[in-house]
Amino acid sequence: xxxxxxxxxxxxxxxxxxxxxxxxxxxxxxxxxxxxxxxxxxxxxxxxxxxxxxxxxxxxxxxxxxxxxxxxxxxxxxxxxxxxxxxxxxxxxxxxxxxxxxxxxxxxxxxxxxxxxxxxxxxxxxxxxxxxxxxxxxxxxxxxxxxxxxxxxxxxxxxxxxxxxxxxxxxxxxxxxxxxxxxxxxxxxxxxxxxxxxxxxxxxxxxxxxxxxxxxxxxxxxxxxxxxxxxxxxxxxxxxxxxxxxxxxxxxxxxx
Length: 256
Prior knowledge:
Blueprint: E1 4-11, E2 15-22, E3 26-30, H1 36-45, E4 48-53, H2 59-62, H3 65-69, E5 75-79, E6 89-91, E7 96-99, E8 104-110, E9 119-123, E10 126-130, E11 133-134, E12 137-138, H4 146-157, E13 164-167, H5 172-182, H6 187-201, E14 209-210, H7 211-217, H8 226-231, H9 242-254
Parallel strand pairs: 3-4, 4-5, 5-6, 10-13
Antiparallel strand pairs: 1-2, 2-3, 7-8, 8-9, 9-10, 11-12, 13-14
C-alpha cells in the first residue's frame, strides 16, 4: 500500500490547503483557496498533482483551482453545487473518491450546516472537514440550521478516535479562549490551550488535531457537558435539548 505524508499549506490570511503526497511523488490537494503558494510547494517537491478535493463553494476554498489547473491536469471532486463550476466529478454522501495511480481512497460525507452542500472526506485515518469542524470549534451556520450542523458533527464524531482532523482554518487559539469561558474546569482543554499557544508562538500549525482531542475539548461536541450546561443556565433551562445547547453555544461564539 502506498505510503504518504500530510502537509498543511498556509494561504490567504488563515486558510490551510491540505497536501497529501505519496512516496512515489503523486499528490492530492484539499481546498486550494489560492494558487501561488500551492504551486510553489508542488514545484519544490516535484510532485505530480492527481486530484483536488473541494469541501464547499466559498472562494477561500476554491479560488486557486483555476490557476492550478493551468499547470496540472487534475481531476476535481466536489459536492453537487452549481456554484462550483470547476468540478469534473460530483460526489454524494458515502460516495467513494479514488485517486488514480496512488492507492488512496476517501469517502465523502455530506455535512450540511456551514453551507447546504458541504462535504467532508475521510480515508486512511484523515478527515478533511473544511469549515464544518474546526479544532475546538465549528463553522458558522450560513446556510443551515443548528439541528443540521449538530447532526453533521455527530457524523464526524462517530469516526475513529485517532482520526486526524484536518480543518480549513487556523482558529484554534481563539477557539480555546472561548471554550475555556464555558468549561474552565476541563483539564484536557486547559492542556490543549497551552499546547496550542506554544505551537503558535513557535510558528507551527495547531492542526491536525485528533478526533479524541476534539471530543475532550470542543464545546460543540460536548453538548452534554454538565459544566457547559451550567455556564448556559442563564440562557437555557436545565432540561434543554442537545440542539438547544448547541445553538446557544454557537450564538455566543458568533458574538465572541
